[in-house]
Every structure is written in C-alpha cells, then in structure tokens.
Amino acid sequence: MADQKSSATKSDIFSKAFNFTKADEVKEMGLYPYFKPLEATDGTVVEIEGRKVIMAGSNNYLGLTNDQRTIKAAQEALTKYGTGCTGSRYLNGTLDSHLELEEKLADFMGKEGCVLFSTGYQTNEGAIQTIADRKDIIFSDKDNHACIVMGTLAANAKTVRYQHNDMDHLRKLLERADPDAGKIIVTDGVFSMSGTLAKVPELVKLAKEFNARLYLDDAHAVGVIGKGGRGSASVFDLTDEVDLISGTFSKSFASLGGFLVGDRPVIEYIRHKSPAHIFSASMPPANVATVLKALEILQEEPWRLERLEEIANYMRKELRGLGFNVWSSQSPIIPVVIGEMMDCFKFWKDLFEEGVYTNAVVPPAVPQGQSLLRTSYMASHTDEHLDQILEGFRKVGLKHGIIDRNGHSNIS
Ligand code: PMP
C-alpha cells in the first residue's frame, strides 16, 4: 500500500484515496471515535471494547430494537417467508406484509397512499429524483439531510437552497422563481444534527402562496414527536396541508426501510417511476414484521412517547444548567457543542472512558469550530442512565474547561 501511495500520480483516480490520511492520524492518536463495533447490546447499555457503556447516541427512540415482541414478530416472519425477498417490489419482491404495512402506515398518517423503500435514504433520494423533473424547481433547506441533497442532484430539476429555517430567504427565492415552474419545498421535519423543528406553519403558508408543494422528511419525527407520534406536521395539526411526508424504519421503528405518504396518484407515480424503488430489492420479511409490530406498540403504549418527551426536556434543561450549549434542540436529539474537531474527539474519548457513548459530529457536517457531540435519547433510558450521562458530561466538561463550576459555558 505504501508503495502504491508514493507512486500514485496526480492523474491516478485513486490518488485521493492514497493521500487520505486523516483517519489514520486520528487513530494513531487513539482518538478515533467512528466505526466502533458493538459486541453486545440490550438497547440502552452496549458493550464496546469489552466495556459496558450507556448508549446516548442511538436513534432507537422508542427502545424497541430489543423488545421481545418485535424480536418474536421478526422470527415468525423469518420462518414464514425466509430471509430475503430477492427481488424488487415491482417484480417478485412484494409480500402480502408489504401491502399490509403500506395500508397501515397510510391510515396511521392520515394520507391516501403509501410506498415503501428499502432504506430511509433511498426513500428521499428516490422520491425527490422522481417527482422533480425538467422545468421544475426544488427549494431545499441548506441543512437538509444528505439523502435529500443527493435526490436533488439526481433530479433533472433546478435546485435552489435557502438558509437554514430562514423563511424570509425562502420567500425571496420563491418570489424570484418562474411563476410557471412546478415547485416543491423540501425540508427535514426535525433536523438530524441540531434536533430543531422545521417551521411547518410558515412553510405551509409559503407553499400555498406560491403554488408550491411541500415535502417533509420526518425520519426523526414519525414515531418520535407530534400527535401519537405522527411527526412534525402533526405538532401543528397541519398534516392535511403537507403534500408528502417521508419516514424511516431505522429509528423509532427498530428496523430498516423507509416510506412515503401522500395523495394516491402521486404515490402511485413514484412507485412506478422511482429507480430507487424499482431497481432495488424490497425490504426483507423480518424487517417488515418488526415495523408492523412496532407500529402496533407505538399506538398501544402512548407512555413511550410521553417518557421520550419528558426525558428530552429533562436532558436539555440539565445540560444547559451545567453550562453546555445545546443549540435550539426541540426533540430527543440534543447536540452538545464542544468547538474544534480535535477537542471534540478528546472530549468524546474521555466521555467514553466515563461510560457514555455519544456521536462526534465534525465539519463539514457542522460549521468549523462548532464540532459537537450529538446525543439522543430513548424511552427505555432509566433515570439512573440519564444521571450517569449527565455526571459524565459534568466531569469531562470541567476537565476540558468547556464549562465552569457555576454552570457557565467557557466557549463562545
Ligand atoms: N433522513 C434523515 C433526516 C436522516 O437523519 C436519515 C438517517 N439518519 C435518513 C433520512 C436516512 O434514513 P436511513 O438511515 O433509515 O436510511
């Protein structure tokens, strides 16, 4: 490898890979926080490098990944249908359980139609690419998830990006746009790094005023917030006013896959036209069965959403009280701003030593100097878990001089 690196010429397409050394440098310093293998997990406590740590960085919001009922449902589906569908939904890969799930999700979300995709990523990438075509314009929030960005790049449409959650900027862009162009506004419902909500009421108004359609990526919202877990539009009682809502099964629904709901003709168009749907194998049986069971549990056990909200409010208040900057989080995603990238990695490592697992998020995912530890919470966290997480942050925060003993932040 070393030989290849030294002999790689600038024109070798692989030269960028041979010259990519950053990860190795951080590994050599013993500070690399990524790709850590979990050796065991019960959902809230995981084993990494032989050490038990509290998981404070999972999207398993309802705590259902290790629930005996979801496990049993998945096992039964394995026995009934086998391990995979070995084909796309279009052809041999549709099970009766896929149809049952689409029907139940459409019903749950209060929309006419639903189409499943094999991941949440493919849902947004595939749907946006398909619905926006030549002569159309996509208005996309600058902080939108990568799969939305990739969907806009794959689409033949023009894309304009508005400043994050900045409704004045969006209005200006809409005013400037060709009134005859087809328009769609696309935004995360809950932003995945900051935990902030989209301004759904303002977005609905702008969409109406400028004859645009509105698309919410509710990956971190369906099964997490809103009326009965129906997502960001339902927080404002505006589900009927939003044209398309997508969600994922890799978070609250304890599985893998994604879905899109909306008016039936639009959903049927996407089902028949989206390359990500047509040319990719369908969700495996066990994944589908897990989601069906999780959807049932979500509706039968409202305490999970209530507990999740209570935990998120508690952690935001306590972390702020310790002096940490948690941005404008409005959900169970609570970022803790550390500052420079290497400082963030050092903080991550010390927190891990204290028995707390978080996710280090560094540029370009966040602005320079705003590297953060993204924490997220689950209905299954106990009060003891939460207090251990807080104690870890307090200790390491003081050690690193990020906070002081009076609950003040030492960073700007
Ligand atoms: N949208 C958002 C906002 C996300 O945060 C994610 C994943 N973190 C996705 C879509 C993709 O979902 P999945 O991981 O289930 O493919």
UniProtKB/TrEMBL annotation:
It holds the Pfam family Aminotran_1_2. Its cofactor is pyridoxal 5'-phosphate. InterPro entries: Aminotrans_II_pyridoxalP_BS, Aminotransferase_I/II_large, AON_synthase_class-II, PyrdxlP-dep_Trfase, PyrdxlP-dep_Trfase_major, PyrdxlP-dep_Trfase_small. Residues 53-391 form the Aminotransferase class I/classII large domain. GO terms for molecular function: transaminase activity. Keywords: Aminotransferase, Pyridoxal phosphate, Transferase. Coiled coil: none annotated. Belongs to the class-II pyridoxal-phosphate-dependent aminotransferase family. This is Aminotransferase class I/II-fold pyridoxal phosphate-dependent enzyme. It comes from Gracilimonas halophila. The lineage of its organism: Bacteria, Pseudomonadati, Balneolota, Balneolia, Balneolales.
